[in-house]
Design brief:
about 525 residues; alpha+beta; 6-stranded antiparallel barrel; elongated
Length: about 525
């Protein structure tokens, strides 16, 4: 019986592959050894010259020599005055009637339920009377603050410490202090803290004058973005007198922000914005972002505003603001034309004056244009609102106005805001908002009608009021685009009284396309002017 032999070709192939693998492995080992051999010759230490042998030789003009270190000098002085503010909110949660308790006897799964099956512990029966479980939860935030007195007063943002049960302050040199909230003002987003310990040697920021700022001035932001403490960024003042829709916006808040492109990020809130002299000019408060980080648009509360609020909170425990008792409007070009004012006239238009309030007592009238108050120009609604609010009640101040093109100055004694007087409409309150039946008198795409007894009762208007009522506003018409509404009362047209429909019709017929028309309108008890450029 013969035994079959293995094919020789296969044996040769196996040997060939094996030999090739050995050769490749040996070659790799040789290459590796040659690249990493400790016996390879190395240069003597110090024999290699790294970098160019000379400076690039960029010439710095003598006038800029001192500027090369200015930001480092600013940071050296300002960083110690900026602290980390760590607010903590404490919630106590009570757990009861937990369905897992009767199986595991541990509402938080402190034990291992598999031990019941594998003998790691003895299974206990359900508890007949389960005791409520209490757990304290601590949630921490992070912001910044600025030391403004050697004994531990700190300026920060109201939103940084809002709702905090505890506040910790950490200085740049590593010290930590507990702090109390002295007061908060949500309308300006300013808060004041006070270190509990007795201290008298803290580094203090120098408070500058934010009224002297100009767009283009250097600005340096210091704070703790993303917990990166004592971070310094540089930019310029991009704009002044900014308002935003945040924090309620509008008349509900007092905003006069400094806009800067110095990088401000989450955690910078409450930190310092200083000028190139290291003077505190603002308290960083918010950013405009679509990504959650810096986009080159940050906002700071001017230090003059923050200081005034801070002093009220420290000395009085509350913020007191002046009240003029008027309704105000922007003065746009169409309104200037309708009033016969020059194009360069700047100011704020008085749309209404509340009876027996400071403006009324001082002789301010509807249609006056306020150009300044207490020596400060008022070119925008925001400037006038903030200027009045910055004056303490009881103080008498000069108010410059334009009346029929003539300059006048009246002395006004401001008071605290009288909410009841401010909310009581000058001509009664509006009632049912059901639209009255339309009548003749179409103009600018709206129809007007007489104030009948039924309409007066429906709109709760006094019998002495004269005017015409808007009964219909066509969609897409010029009246609609100018914001006129059904039930608006037209009191004047081009400064002439509209006592009845004949006055409305006569004045409307005299208006030509391209003319400026000034309407005095009452809506829900308050009056305002509406300037219209009649379409051609």
């Amino acid at each position: 019986m013969s035994i079959p032999r293995k094919p020789k070709a296969k044996t040769g192939a196996i040997r060939l592959v094996s030999s090739t693998a050995v050769l490749l492995f040996a070659a790799s080992a040789l290459l590796f050894a040659s690249g990493n051999s400790s016996s390879a010759k190395r240069p003597n230490r110090g024999s290699v010259n790294f970098g160019a042998s000379s400076s690039p030789g960029v010439s710095i003009p003598p006038a800029l020599q001192s500027f090369t270190t200015v930001f480092a000098d600013v940071a050296e002085k300002v960083v110690p005055t900026v602290v980390s503010v760590v607010p903590t909110k404490i919630d106590t949660v009570v757990f009861g009637n937990n369905p897992f308790y009767q199986f595991f006897n541990d509402p938080f799964f402190g034990g291992n339920p598999f031990e019941d099956f594998f003998g790691g512990r003895q299974r206990r029966g359900p508890s007949p009377q389960q005791q409520p479980q209490r757990q304290e939860r601590r949630r921490q935030g992070l912001g910044s603050g600025v030391i403004v007195s050697r004994d531990g007063y700190i300026l920060t943002n109201s939103h940084v410490v809002e709702g905090a049960d505890e506040v910790e302050v950490r200085t740049s040199d590593g010290r930590s202090f507990a702090a109390d909230i002295v007061g908060q003002d949500s309308l300006t987003d300013v808060a004041v803290l006070k270190i509990r310990d007795k201290v008298n040697n803290l580094p203090v920021a120098f408070l500058g004058d934010s009224d002297k700022l100009r767009p283009g001035d250097w600005a340096v932001a210091v704070g703790n973005p993303f917990s990166l403490t004592s971070s310094v960024t540089m930019g310029i003042v991009s704009a002044l007198d900014r308002t935003t829709g945040a924090q309620g916006g509008g008349a509900a808040t007092y905003q006069n922000f400094i806009q800067t492109d110095a990088a401000i990020n989450p955690g910078n809130s409450g930190g310092a914005l200083v000028n190139i002299k290291g003077e505190l000019i603002g308290i960083n408060t918010m950013i405009y972002t679509q990504s959650g980080g810096n986009m080159g648009i940050g906002f700071a509360i001017p230090i003059n505003m923050a200081r005034r609020i801070m002093e009220d909170l420290i000395y009085d425990g509350k913020v007191s603001r002046g009240w003029l008792g008027v309704s105000i409007q922007e003065l746009d070009q169409t309104t200037r034309d309708a009033f016969g004012l020059s194009p360069d006239t700047r100011g704020v238009l008085i749309g209404d004056v509340f009876k027996d309030q400071p403006g009324d007592k001082a002789g301010i009238r509807r249609g006056d244009v306020v150009t300044s108050i207490n020596g400060k120009a008022t070119e925008t609604l925001n400037q006038l609102r903030n200027s009045v609010a910055a004056i303490h009640p009881g103080k008498t101040v000069p108010v410059e106005i334009l009346r029929n093109g003539k300059k006048m100055t009246v002395q006004v004694k401001l008071t605290a805001r009288d909410e009841s007087a401010a909310n009581v409409p000058a001509g009664g309150t509006s009632g049912d908002q059901q639209a009255p039946q339309p009548t003749d008198g179409e103009f600018l795409g709206m129809k007007a009608g007489p104030l009948t007894k039924e309409l007066r009762d429906q709109l709760n208007l006094p019998a002495t009021m004269q005017g015409v009522v808007v009964t219909e506003v066509a969609r897409g018409s010029q009246a609609a685009q100018e914001g006129l509404r059904v039930n608006d009362i037209i009191l004047e047209m081009n400064r002439k009284p509209v006592a009845a429909m004949k006055d409305f019709t006569q004045i409307a017929r005299g208006v030509k396309p391209g003319d400026s028309l000034l309407l005095l309108v009452q809506r829900e008890g308050s009056t305002f002017f509406r300037a219209v450029k009649v379409r051609k």
